[in-house]
Amino acid sequence: MAMTPKYALPFALLTLALQAQAQQQLPTVSVSGRNANAPVSLGGFGDTPAARLPLQALRIDAERLQDLGLDGLGALPKLDASVSDSYNSIGYYTQLRVRGYELDTRFNLRREGLPINGETGLDLFNKAALELLKGSSGLQAGTSAPGGLLNLVVKRPDADRLDLRLSWEQHNSRALALDWTKRWGKEFGLRVNLAAAELDPWLHNSRGRQQGLALAGDWRLGADTLLEAEVESSQHSQPSQPGFSLLGNRLPSIESVDIRRNLNEASWRLPVVLDNDFATLRLRQRLNADWNLLLQAGVQRARNDDRVAFPFGCPSEDDYSRYCSDGSFDLYDFRSENERRDTDALRAAVDGRVQLGGLTHQLRAEALLSRYEARFQRQAYNWVGYGSVFQPTPSQPDPSLTDENTHRDERNRELAFSDQVQIGALELFAGLRHSRIEREAVRTDGSRATNYTQSFTTPWLGASWALAPDLRVYASWGQGIESEVIPNRSRYQNAGRALPALKSRQLEAGLKAGSQTVEWSLATFQIQRPVWADLGSCSAANSCERRVDGEARHRGVEAQADFKWQGGGLVGSAQWLQARREGSTQVGVNGLRPVNVPARSYRVGVHQQVLQALRLQANLVHEGRRAVLPDNSIELPSWTRLDLSARYQHAVGTQQWTWQLGVDNATNQRAWKEAPYSFGHSYLFPLAPRVWKAGLSLAL
Q1: At 6, which helix (H) or strand (E)?
Q2: Distance between alpha carbon 597 and the CA centroid of its chain, in Å?
Q3: Per the confidence metrics, is the pTM higher than 0.70?
Q4: Nearest Cα to Cα of residue 472 among 422, 509, 512
Q5: Cα 356 to Cα 353: distance, rounded to the nearest angstrom
Q6: I need a labelling partner for 190 at 20 to 30 A (CA). Which of 312, 347, 523, 578 fits?
Q7: For the chain, give me the number of helices (H) and strands (E)?
């Protein structure tokens, strides 16, 4: 098949990087995009650099995020081709897909390696890096969806410095950030991060604010003992952005709607408020020359007010999966206030080297106890009239608390073991995690109570072979676990019963290489995940059965390259994904693609120092076609976005000044960015229009 012009640039740049690996004649430079030689703490194998692990893991340092003007988890889809949006709207918490599977906001997120809940605002103002482990994570997590794990790494005390940053975005969003770190000898260190922003983005009627404070300290109690602590508090307050939708049986032309219009524009609308508090305490103890101990405790306290004038469905055409053909929709007053989600975790880990059978084994053992508790009030979900995608329509609020919510409790006990051994050029990895979970749920009126307990063990195996000092081939196999209970509703047979734990399985093989001039990798993977389905009419008592109905099988190829030359560099990635439903007993389901998952994705970033103090950068994001409906009858066209930026650095006395100017979507490309399918309804989110940005950073 001939390559189309829009795909030619990513392939050409990737080919250039691979050719440079063979030549290895260019000088070393300090700019890096992926940091493959850094350890990825959630990999399950201690401080082993990502380049040596038989899996795909990504670390993105804060410097790169700041250099690109990116300040939230929603930036990840711009940086790596395996990551895509999954219902990402302004004013709400971030949801992502990796390798086509959605990251579960309850189970697939970590902060400093400890489990956290992602149904809240997660700020980056005090984060040193983002770590992303791709694929099944049964070794690293008790229960998790098979896309991967995302870990937030906190900034810790460093050499004395003070950084200030001012930023502005077109339509008058403004932000201020402070980063101060100080050491008192080798014994004490402190880091303070402050951030505040007035939000006024390109989307109309979405003004808000954001603020955060974080402290991190360390105390060296002795040559072998280090005590570290971090606390963090943040708040987001902003009206959220409901999606557009299909108009009857057609995909609306992007030119036919005002993409800047926020359908959450009722005069009575209230902002979504996301409050978040974290605290972590960690003791690192060197036991002897070969063994180390880690003790860690963490808490998260999240409080949300989820409120929106919510468009949903078309009553006149008796279709609640989309809006009406004429652009009208039902409008609801939705309010779920004072949502509280608390997470506590305790972790103990020990690692060290032992000689067994004439080989050196790097052993690790970990015990993790975690508790999650969600408490809610009754919620409002009341019909208040009609709206239209083409023009505002007056409506009156109805905040009556007419709907029940669901309290949830979960207790996890996990034990994990891993072994890493090198035999000449061969390196072997093995591990397993045993998990015991206890879950309870009950409606806010005391009805529909469920509770269950399950235990399971998830193994993981991997191997890599050094074909040359800078080239490795690897293969790995692992499992992940997901667990669910049948809702306690009369329509279900065996209502309230726990379903068998579902095991996802992943096979992966690839190549990794790295030198002073280029780091690159190529991987192929297959992930099989069983699918729960409701079978039967589900319209009367005992008419519905929830059970495993086939599987979702995702096969893909990923390629990454970080290419460096004197004064510049290139970071690129690509993913080709074949995601299909297989083995279902339902007619017309097998062979279909999942909704909102692009089959092809490309990312390319190029930067060049054109003067001693001036650096120019261009970033290209391309995503292929996506299915809009579960039956694949409607698709979103592919789209490409180009971002440009310039950075100028100069010294004023002992101060370092950095000026930045950038434009996102420089060509003002108009397209539907994504098409999430949520609660049986199809939504459409537009690509943001051209937006100018500016910033000033001072290192004092």
Answers
A1: helix 5-23
A2: 15
A3: yes
A4: 512
A5: 10
A6: 347
A7: 3, 37
